[in-house]
Design brief:
The protein is mainly α. The chain is 65% helix and 6% strand. It has nine helices and five strands. It has a three-stranded antiparallel β-sheet with strand order 4-1-5. The chain has a two-stranded antiparallel ribbon with strand order 2-3. Helix 1 (3-26) runs antiparallel to helix 7, helix 5 (67-96) packs across helix 6 (105-142) and helix 6 (105-142) packs antiparallel against helix 7.
Length: 271
């Protein structure tokens, strides 16, 4: 991930840790207190304790699914989208030497939709985390597992949630940067782009092929209106595949003409 993705992930990880703290403070003391009622060596085994656990979980759900959390998710998402926009503008300025006007309605509608989508993803983190915690705790208590075992299982679930948050940050960073690159390059009059991969072992084989394929326009160069195809035969662009780290470099018609004149192209090969 680049710096924007790293900062986005840091905010999501902070959210995960805050939810974990709530679970530790509100739920685990009750689990330990109720141990004599549900552990395997308890004298009487009833589900009377389940109402108390359900009430504690209801409190946690209400704490992490309210207007305050929604507002926080919208703020984080908005900051992420705006940071991505500024980076895209800087990248185009650096690669093509032009300033981009980002105030058109089409781009603004896209930015608004992206912010809303990311806000929903952010809100889903505590919601899914707590759903998994509720299932895990209730199942283990009904099985008579001791608090220490439940705490260990909760720690593992914390790790799962951390990884999911990181996955969201990485995937959304790639997607929005790829989509912004397309919209701004096309808006600036660029019909062509060069597919550039990350040049490491994690690059998808198909993406490596696309980046190194010589087309009628040059090495790894394609038209925005005639995209290369995935392994499944679906048109793709840099950043569109799950956690794709490839980028699109704007290519001018003049550069394409220079490639053709120099014989650095493959006539008839378009994607």
């Amino acid at each position: 991930m680049d710096m924007i993705g790293i900062q986005y992930n840091a905010k999501l990880q902070r959210l995960v840790k805050q939810v974990k703290a709530s679970i530790s403070n509100e739920l685990m003391p009750l689990v330990r207190q109720l141990a004599p009622e549900y552990t395997q060596d308890a004298v009487a085994t009833t589900d009377a304790w389940s109402d108390l656990i359900s009430n504690a979980m209801s409190f946690l759900f209400s704490k992490w699914q309210n207007e305050r959390v929604s507002a926080g998710a919208s703020r984080i998402a908005g900051e992420f989208v705006q940071s991505s926009l500024k980076k895209s503008e800087r990248d185009l300025k650096k690669s093509a030497g032009i300033d981009v006007f980002s105030g058109n309605s089409v781009l603004q509608d896209y930015l608004k939709a992206s912010a809303q989508q990311n806000a929903q993803l952010i809100k889903s983190i505590p919601a899914k985390y707590l759903e998994e915690v509720q299932t895990l705790v209730m199942a283990n208590m009904r099985s008579g597992m001791r608090p220490g075992y439940i705490e260990k299982a909760l720690q593992e679930q914390f790790g799962v949630t951390q990884r999911r948050a990181k996955m969201i940050a990485r995937d959304q960073t790639s997607k929005i940067q790829g989509e912004l690159a397309e919209k701004q390059q096309k808006g600036a009059g660029f019909e062509y782009f060069q597919w550039i991969d990350s040049d490491d072992q994690r690059v998808r084989h198909r993406h490596h092929e696309i980046a190194n394929k010589v087309t009628a326009y040059g090495k790894g160069i394609y038209r925005w209106d005639d995209l290369p195809l995935s392994d499944k035969g679906v048109p793709i662009k840099p950043g569109s595949d799950y956690q794709c780290r490839c980028i699109a470099r704007p290519v001018s018609a003049r550069e394409v003409k220079a490639n053709q004149d120099a014989g650095r192209t493959a006539p008839g090969v378009y994607r």
